[in-house]
Amino acid sequence: MVRSDIIRGHLDSIILRLILEKDRYGYEISQEISNRTNNSFQIKEATLYAVFQRLEKKEVIEAYYGDVSHGGKRKYYRITSLGKAYLSELVKEWAEVKEIIDLFMEGLE
Amino acid sequence: MVRSDIIRGHLDSIILRLILEKDRYGYEISQEISNRTNNSFQIKEATLYAVFQRLEKKEVIEAYYGDVSHGGKRKYYRITSLGKAYLSELVKEWAEVKEIIDLFMEGLE
DNA sequence: AAAGATTACTCTATCTGTCAAAGTAATAAT
DNA sequence: ATTATTACTTTGACAGATAGAGTAATCTTT
């Protein structure tokens, strides 16, 4: 398990990317993250919903209510065009960050 | 300039790496980070000294006073053997984190 | 039909890391 | 003398992450 402090700041990217693929609801996203990372990273529920609030406020995602199939009422999120531009920035930023950290980690093991 | 929020959690690694190379003092480290990253990342003073406190408490670095050549009294830090082991863990963690984030960023631009 | 498991979301209080701002103090340059 | 630079410290505030508790609907098991 990876410390979440180190993923901090990348949650926006991860969640936006998943919503870009298709509209998704919270619980689904949390499952998807666990699956794709083979449980090496799990987003905490409280964190996930905090991210949604932040992203909605920034107007990079929009919510709408879906079915109530098996369990609670699902709240779906879609990405806005502003969101697509934002994600694109985040991808560039990630490339930069990787370079910077690698600069200090290289030659070590 | 990279948002510092996204570097968060990697400061321990960066600083430990620089101290591993040789004993260093705060101001020197801050300059070194700016130089190596071509000013694309600058650690804030307050942050740097907060990191030192954290690392000392964890006993991964030790401090001693040096000269007073040109300016204030320098406080040098050296890495402990516990610190070397800790850094080694952080390097492994970085490899893991990179994989995880890349998983979500791949195919995008 | 009742009980428990699972799905799904919300809210509050707290913790940690980062940082702005302000301060102290010594030396070097003008 | 004054200003710039080097060097460290402290305080208070902020933002993101999270534990924990709560609400509610549906499915499974007995």
From TrEMBL, chains A, B:
The UniProt entry, under SUPFAM superfamilies, shows:
Winged helix' DNA-binding domain
Against Gene3D superfamilies, the record matches this protein to: Winged helix-like DNA-binding domain superfamily/Winged helix DNA-binding domain (1.10.10.10)
Q: Domain of life of the organism in this record?
A: Bacteria
Domain Transcription regulator PadR N-terminal: from-to ranges: 15-88
What Pfam families does the record point to?
Answer: PadR (PF03551)
**Name of this protein:** PadR family transcriptional regulator
Q: Which organism is it from?
A: Lysinibacillus mangiferihumi
